[in-house]
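Q: Got a minute? One more chain.
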Amino acid sequence: MLPSSSSVLRAPGYVIANPSDLSDPGGDRTYGTGVLLGKTRAVALVPLGEAYRVECEGLGEFSDVLEGNNRYLVNLFLRGHDKDAFQQLMSGGYIEGATTGQPLWEEPGTQTPGQSAIARAKVLLFAPEDTIHAPALLIRRGIPDFADGAEVAFQRGEEFGLELSIECLRNAAGKILSLGMLEDITL
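A: Always. Here it is, folded:
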């Protein structure tokens, strides 16, 4: 049986923005000078590139398949996020509360529909708790946003968290993402 079109990492782990050292998580799990955003139980990597089939009119069948584009989306539910998560992920609407100094998210923020979101791009690392048996995911240049249909629930029946969808883009070196054992991934 073929796997589904999305690969799901079902391992609890941490989401870190802009890690600088993958070999040392440190006691605070920031991987160098990164920012620990929160925890997640599962990450879904969704390849969206489609192959193009070339039909041979003389045979009435496909004679070739052209490789699809390299579009990837990563979906996750960020649990137990701290105040840095809003600042790192939702920078267009983030301000600091005047009285408490706590994060305050306001819309509309500084983002204008139709403008480039590249300024919000981050290097994002999913580092599993069990780095020996579970793979890590390094997004080389990702633009986070709320997932389509996401809800930020304020009720007892729902867990409070951020349902994120991250569009993965090429970085300056031409890399999009790395999925594998953390020891094998380099920045």
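A: Residues 25 and 31 are 4 Å apart (CA to CA).
Q: Perfect, thanks.
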